[in-house]
Amino acid sequence: MTDFPPALDALQSDISRRGLLRGVGMAAAGVAVGSVLSSATRESTSGVNLKTVVPFFDTYQAGVATPSPDHFILVSFDSTTSDRHALRAMLNKWTDAAEKMSRGQSIGYTENPYIAPVDSGEAEGLSPASLTFTIGYGSSLFDERFGLSHHRPSGLQPIPAFVGDNLNPLESDGDIVVQICSDDPQVNFHAAHTLARLGEGVVGVRYMHIGFGRTSAVTHDQPTTRNLIGFKDGTNNLQENRVPNFDRHVWVKGATPAWMRNGTYLVSRKIRVRLEDWSSNSLDTQEATIGRFKESGAPLTGDREHDVPNFEALNPHRNYVIPTSAHIRVAAPSQNGGRVILRRGFGFVDGTDQKTGQIICGLHFVCFQSDPIDQFVSIQQNLATNDSLANYLSHEASVLVACPGGLKTGEKWGSQLFG
Amino acid sequence: MIRRGAIGAVASVLISSMVLGGCGSYKKASIDYHFGLHGAPTEAQQASSSHATRTYRALIVQASQRFASAAGKLQDAAHRGDIDEAQRQWAIAQASYNMVRGEIAAHSTTELTIAGRLQDQPFFIGRTGLHAIEQDLFTNDHHSLITDAESLAGQGTLLEIGLLRTVRTPSRIMTTATQSLGWVINDVIANPQEPYAQQNLLDVSATISMVHQALEAVAPLALDIAPGHLRTAQQRLAALEETLRQATTKQIDGDINITPNSAVPATTWRLLAVQLTALLSPLTQLGGDMDGFGTGRTYA
Asked: Out of A320, A358, A385, whose CB is closest to B185?
């Protein structure tokens, strides 16, 4: 069995991370005031309730139908061992740590100043901030290394190349992928950092994608926000409170292996936007490309954001008001055989291109579905070839993972996967 | 705007695939007669619009003829085993193609035949046409040169025919120019196209020349309706051309820039990209200013 770093064995329960880099005793009194002030300061400026805790144990994994917070990390890991027991143990350790962090707690402490702190400490004093973990397993995990080849979920098929793909394999795929979301970027970072530390010796980080500013509402009470090209994004998203058949489109029911029941498939695409090209376009061209008015978000045939687009409406010149290549037309369920997906996108900025000075930015397009080939692939094939917005986009990374169902109280990811 | 969007409709018919960049279903298609913000055009404005359409057509036709001519001479040189002359004609053909590439639908049969690259997913047809010949000519492996050159020569004739009736409104001309600049920034400077020849200024220079001539074509109309935007575009273009001129160390055939990449410092590439980016907005604004002028139906 692979040795874990000493810190792993010190995971303790129910330790508030407010003030506990060392022993619990000395922190209990002195740090409380500071931590309250810290949280109050953040909450007063952010406008969101950072004290919200999203239940970790549930029928479904958090981070899918959960209201989408403002910050996102997708961290991908590759196994560095073929020891299934080590992997199982690591997943169980991850579960313990993730459950604590989602409650805003430290993952543990040590009173020995001569070893590294159990908890790295950067979330010290911070609130839970709606932190969620959504774990998924990539196709590569189901090779011969761990004896899982007979348990490969049926939806883990290769995603075909699409027109305009420019994928970087080093930023794509991965054995294990964890989506981490919260309303505090530092809480997010701490969570990703902690998983990476706990995984040492068993897995290594393959890549980490960081996003901000959710672009799709997942519940009807969340307002639609704008993406980096300035348009409201996700107006017509599948929303749990609006669409009664969430079970049909998102959750996997009656599946084998058993751990996939109530699970889903996550697809994430890192999509760079050529922002300078886009921004130089006239308002008229931008709105025709999207099919919506920029300010209101209403379809070009409507007045309000949630008006149903009329794809048959013609202008006086007998052209479609919503052009045939407009994004909302090409992406509409009616143009895709009724297929829908649940979107949870986040913007990203990766600095500037050293050669051109252009801003490297875009969208981490994340979606969930019960059948990725029938849903995501079909829709994306249509978008890649027929959507005029694609002229400004370059898909630079891609991953598909199978996300297991939620954990029962006390259950762990390793036990769920390996039995 | 919808070059990629038209792919679904592309059949294997070569000529139709060439002109898809200009006809599609986008609402600014050539049969749209609305008059934008300016009301009905005056006679002088109509004349300026026709001038733009005719001048631009001449630019495209001349470039396609030059491409066809160079492809023919390249074929002859390949048969003779004259690599130096073949390299020279390749550069002329490549530059000429860059003058017209904005008129050719992305990933169309035409583009994938004349300039297919390994990264043109999901087609994976490998390097074709100009890119295949570049590899043939700038490595020591010439065994495919004659086959590739013969194929390109055949395409030259078809390209010439296909672009013969290019008819664009002034607004559309500016849109094509803007898209071409975007290609130079994102696909030439950020991700160089010719890894073997290592002469990326070839693409930059030809495209800037095309944009310059396109701007000249619409200038009379632009001077009438949007002199401020025209002046901004001309000033930024002049600054860009000055940077290009200073970076250029080697030309052939009058205007074909074969300056080696090694002679161009990274800071110059960066400056070129920044100046190209700065030109996008005024050209797009001019395109919007000229929306509705010209019918796009006649060129006589």
From this structure: A358
**Selection from A340, A17, A160, A260 nearest residue B123 by Cα:** A160
Residue matched to tokens 């619990």:
A24
Smallest Cα distance from B81 to chain A, Å: 36
* β-sheet bridge partners, residue A72: A181, A211
Structure-token pair, residue B90? 């390749």
CB contact under 8 A, A163 and B34: no
Confidence of residue A11 (pLDDT cuts 50, 70, 90): very low
Q: Is the N-terminal amide bond of A323 cis, ω within 30° of 0?
A: no
| Distance between CA atoms of residues B39 and A105, nearest Å | 67
Which of residues 188 through 207 in chain B touch A, CB cutoff 8 A?
189-190
DSSP string computed for B149-188: HHHHHHHHHHHHHHTTT----HHHHHHHHHHHHHHIIIII
The dihedral sign for the CA sequence B50, A289, B19, B73 = positive
**Which CATH topology does B168-191+198-291 take?**
A middle domain of Talin 1 (1.20.1420)
Query: Does residue B156 carry a pLDDT above 60?
Result: yes
Contacts of B1 in chain A (CB under 8 A): 285, 289, 388, 391
Q: How many residues does chain A have?
A: 419
Give yes or no for a contact between A392 and A277, defined as CB atoms under 8 angstroms apart.
yes
Q: Work out the minimum CA distance from A164 to partner chain B, whole angstroms.
A: 6
Map tokens 């007669």 to a residue: B33
Tokens of B38: 């300016």
Distance from CA of B284 to the nearest CA of A (A): 6
| Beta-bridge partners for A395 | A165, A271
**Angle at which helices B201-225 and B266-289 pack, to 10 degrees?**
30
pLDDT digits (tens, 9 = 90+) for A357-413: 999 999 999 999 999 999 999 999 999 989 999 989 999 999 999 999 999 999 999
What's residue B296's pLDDT?
A: 64
- In angstroms, the first-to-last Cα distance of chain A is 17
pLDDT bracket for residue B9 (50, 70, 90): very low
Quote the CA–CA distance of A64 and B196 in Å, as a whole number.
Answer: 47
To probe the interface with B, which of A269, A280, A398 has the most B CB atoms within 10 Å? A280
Q: What Rg value do the Cα atoms of chain B yield, rounded? A: 19
Q: B57-166 and B168-191+198-291 share one CATH topology?
A: yes
Measured distance CA(B268)–CA(B285) in Å, rounded: 27
Q: Are B35 and B292 in contact (CB under 8 A)?
A: yes
If DSSP codes are grouped into helix, strand and coil, which group holds residue A143? coil
Instruction: Kindly identify which residue of chain A lies nearest to residue B5, measuring between CA atoms.
Output: A386
Report domain extents, chain B: 57-166, 168-191+198-291
User: Which of A317, A322, A388 should one mutate to test binding to chain B, selecting the residue with the greatest count of B CBs within 10 A?
Assistant: A388
What is this model's ipTM? 0.70
CATH 1.20.1420.20 fits B57-166, yes or no: yes
- Which amino acid is present at A415? S
Structure tokens at A36: 């309250």
Span B242-298, pLDDT tens digits: 999 999 999 999 999 999 999 999 999 999 999 999 999 999 999 989 988 987 665
